[in-house]
TrEMBL record:
It holds the Pfam family Methyltransf_21. The keyword Transmembrane applies. The chain crosses the membrane at residues 6-27. Keywords: Membrane, Transmembrane, Transmembrane helix. Coiled coil: none annotated. It comes from Orchesella dallaii. PANTHER family: PROTEIN STAR. Residues 126-248 form the Methyltransferase FkbM domain. This is Methyltransferase FkbM domain-containing protein. The keyword DNA repair does not apply.
Amino acid sequence: MSHFSHLFKVSRAVFITITFIFVITWLSKSLKELGLGVILKKSSWDTDSYTPLTVNIDYVEENLLTLDQTDAQLITYTRIRHLTPPSQLPYALDGPLDNPSHFADNFSIWVSKFFHNKRNGIFIEAGAHKGENPSHSLMLELGLNWTGLLVECNPTLLPILKKRHRKAWIADVCLAPNQHPGINNFFNPTKWSATGKLETAMNKRSRNDKVMDEVRSIPLYTLIAAIGWKEIDYFALDVEGAEWEILQTIPFHLLTIKVNLPM
């Protein structure tokens, strides 16, 4: 009886341990989904300048439109809700992977010459479209091993962009024309397309323009701080009229941008 009693105690201890691990795993996942104290861990794509932080998602969402772009809670929230890390999957492009020049445009050619074919650079492409033809950064990524941030809020184009499996972060928002997040009208004369525009104080829609949707806008600095970068080699800004307002939001004492090319 003592032998069976010992086996029963061991089995019970194993069962309790497994149950405890399961409950902790489930609880952690549930808390993350509910936004009740999310703690981010570093991944292989993180930089040393990013520090994981517990974020109160309810607080951020209730105060979203008033938080400054440098707010630590907002930065961590942005990383959780609006950033997709570089894909680890093989590219899914229409063009030939073994010929990066196929994806070149005048801007990426100029940038590669300006930096003397620098490798491992960092780009930002706002208005990333489908991520391929047109793209102002894909040649640099394929040919010179650059990475970066692709910003695209168009709900028609965004799923296509993500399916390309680019080796760059993707932000599913527009760049804010202010130093705090916003909710902005996205408009177009006819339908969702590459010529969709963000309505701002200086970029007004005409009577014939149709509002397609309301989109969330996040300041550029908030997005970059959420990744952990402090220096950008090349910024391609192609946002159909809101360029000047977006550039005015950038705190250049906190961030270095070597080349900025408004399209």
